[in-house]
Structure prediction request, 382 residues.
Amino acid sequence: MSSYKYATLAVHAGQHPDPLTGAVNVPLYLSSTFELTGIGTDRGWDYSRAGNPTRDRLEAALAALEGGTSGHAFASGMAAIAALVGMLKTGDHLLCSHNVYAGTVRLFNQIVSGYGIEIEYVDTSNLKAVEAAIRPATKLIHIETPSNPLMVLSDIAAISKIAHAHGTEVSVDNTFMSPVLQRPLELGADIVMHSTTKYLNGHSDGIGGALIGSKPEHKDRFLLIQKAAGAILSPFECFLVLRGIKTMPLRIRQHEENGRAVAEFLSAHPKVRSLAYPGLKSHPQHELAARQQKGFGSMMSFDIGTREAAGRFMEALKIFINAESLGGVESLASHSATTTHAALSDAEREAAGITQGIIRLSIGIEDKEDLIADLDQALAKA
Prediction:
């Protein structure tokens, strides 16, 4: 189905009618085990950890949406990243964007490094810094673009070109953009990672993660990790993501329309000290965003100055919900230093630029005028 337009792919990739019943929606196969057809033979499934018909459909959809050769669904975004680094072995060197979700840093520093894998953080918005950091032992460069929550971009095509010249692979966390607005494999990346919890699901009612590979060896490795480690996505969660994917292009369109309007409002507000949204021409990487993305999304962060001001602002919100996560139909506001980046030390947050006054917004699909009015009244009380 790769020749179809994106909205068509979202509705139909992996979601053809059930051949047994004609059901238009993918059936939910709530079975842990499957009857075998003989000694060592089956109908394609034997045990749901190794494979499930509902999960198969989601994984086919994920591969099609990102233009990959295989998709793999995991129990969470962090389970997907754990599976990603499961390709590495003792003595390997991993480069990672220095400005990423703190949960990724926690996994790498407190668990993965204990396996004898060396983790190094680098400013991946600086191509010279990336190339200088690559060693013979560097097997993977993991980037998050735009980054969480400061919306710093990394040039996927340029980094991929540098990495491949050194025999190194590139993985991209594409959660903030969704495959509607950014397709890293088309830009030269090797692997795409998602927290399906966010825009792919889109309704804040399921946790999940995904890896999409571009090579046969990725499929073999990730299938092995799914079966051996077992952190697979349940059939019901797969069903929820499949449902969400069908409306994703429509939702993303409204998310972005609202995001642009909110960003323009915040950029002119006197209480906002700085605003990070690549859709604004004032963003230092606006041209890169326009080149490698198909839109600017609905994630942004702004600095209101102090923790106290941030607290007053958050308390005054009426439509925006004070909650972690992102990508759902409802608008969320979060204080990054105490939520998404609470796992970092004060020094690590300071080095990353996560101040106590930073608030991250996930703009939902409500009426944009209502959202702006809510932010306006909350800023007045901050």
Q: What stands out?
A: The two ends are 51 Å apart (CA to CA).
